[in-house]
Amino acid sequence: MAAPVLGIDLGTTNSVVAVSDAGNTRVLTEPESGSALIPSVVSFHPSGDVLVGHGARDRRLVDAANTVYSIKRLIGRPFRSEEVRRARERFPFELREGPTGGALVVARGESYTLPEISAFVLREVRSVAERALGQAAVRAVITVPANFNELQRSATKAAGRVAGLEVMRILNEPTAAALAYGYGSGQTGRVAIYDLGGGTFDITLLEMQGDVFEVTATAGDTFLGGDDIDLLVAERMADVFLRDNRYDPRGDRQAYERLRAAAEWAKCELSAQPEVELTVEELAYGEDGAALNLNFTMTRREIEAMLTPLVGRTFDVCEDAMRLARLRPAEFDRVILVGGSTRIPLVRRMVQEYFKSEPCCDIDPDTVVAMGAAIHARALAGDVPQPSAPSSQVQVPDNAIGKVALRKVSAERVSLPAGLPPPIAEASNRTAGGPPPAADVVLGSSIVVGAADIDVDVNMNEMLPPAPPPPGGTGGFDAAIMMQQPQAPYPSAMALPQTRADRPAPLLLDVTPQSLVVETVSGYCDPVIRRNAAIPVEQTRVFSTGLDGQESVLIRIAQGESRRYDECQALGQLELHGLRPAPRGAVKIAVTFEIDADGTLQVRAEDPETGQRQGARIALVGGISDEEIAMMAQRQGQHFAESR
Ligand code: ADP
Ligand code: MG
Fold first, then answer.
1. Domain 5-222+359-384+464-509, second-level architecture
2. Rounded to two decimals, what is the model's pTM?
3. Residue 482 has pLDDT above 50, yes or no
């Protein structure tokens, strides 16, 4: 097998890795245990070893203060955010503020950034994959919740780099799940992906047309998942223990951690059985030193009564997505269940009631995301290297006969199979192998393409005119290329010109989950790229100087839907520098904000008067520099080598 590209579902609770090759798509399991789920837990042992996965999870019960879990809930969040504040109350490990406003984990006297913690998990995932495959694996596609913002996505990428991975793509989890179900099936229809995991809930609505997957809306809640259910059950257990023993275990972090683990066990049992009974021994000691045990029973009926409001909240989020897509739940052809918490019978019943159709669960909800990531990874595996940012990429699947509209682009590299319509072939000729094109390549406005497997990497250094709204989308800009709905399926896969994999890449049309905003005056902000815009997407804004001779401009940027800047999630600031000296207001800078196919933000700036490119840099809250990544990778390599 050629160098594999891993599909990694980096979960809040568990991570899963899969690969796809000509034969099939499969989840890789730990050779020793046969387990596909790798707990996303890192424990710092007194010996100096760093345990990751199952070994680390077991340490939660005995060394809670140095055992770190659910880091995905916090990654990319500023230390001063509500989420980190809540986490500090409930997590037994220590968090403190880092120099750039991010959160750091402190364990055994050392501090670690959150990407560094995630990188430990990714290293373990990679090690599991390499042992299962019997060969090295460096490239990967990593999935994230669809509603992850810029900070969370870039922190996840940083984690990949610290783990020594080449992250080829950040892919949204629901889109991956849809791929696992739909890719290659030739099906058409509306699909809803309902993902209730350990930490988060996500709903994504998409249209499937053969191998074209177009997301129409996505919404989520990053604090709604199985962990919250565990806490409800643990609270009930603590109440019972207090009633029986007049001792409140909530004051003792280690004891509470044991309750939480027992609660999770009880919850999972109740998905299969009508009642559970359990004892937690020596949860605390009485005044006379005698051990106090928790004896606890719970019925499915009881847990369901507790859960109904929590599961109900998932449908508020669904309603939000329905509004965006202007659809009703009953208009969906399929509902796909993702995430361990969808094993709960009540969840399945409520989903069925809401969508008025039985959800599909033929693929294990725990592994479906990794499988989809692997499918996409394989599609990217044969690719030429990614161009330097900003870039956009479009893949046209074999059975798509549609229109590809290429507007004015400057193509740095275009790699295409033979036998293409002349305008595209010409672009390819101009750029293939040779130096970058001297002039912009202006392509015909619309070209009919059929039976082609195309990868077009374009690097735009031109401002594009506004594009018409993409099909089914809510408007805004698309990058350079717009693919219309295929009009008819291609008759036979066998007859296709094949360039790399035996099946060409799926076309993924994703959307941005939150609006990107810039701060304006008196605490207000102005959206630059609106929520639910199809990505890749870009928008240009013109800024000007406010002082005579001003050499740089700082613009605060955030993501969110509020008109007030402070109510949005601050991303950091954009710095424009090296401006020419001139009276105030005389210098204008056109800043182009791009959200690329990974959902991450890129900017470039230009002085429209002189055509000069301007320096533009984004300093993200909690951002990590390349040097820091290299240092973390080195420290981690040592830890890992010592532990093994
Ligand atoms: P994530 O994507 O957040 O890592 P997963 O999809 O792995 O999460 O789901 C983990 C969650 O699913 C945990 O809260 C776990 O307790 C829960 N879970 C797993 N199996 C069951 C089950 N049989 N019944 C109820 N909850 C379950
Ligand atoms: Mg998940």
1. 2-Layer Sandwich (3.30)
2. 0.76
3. no
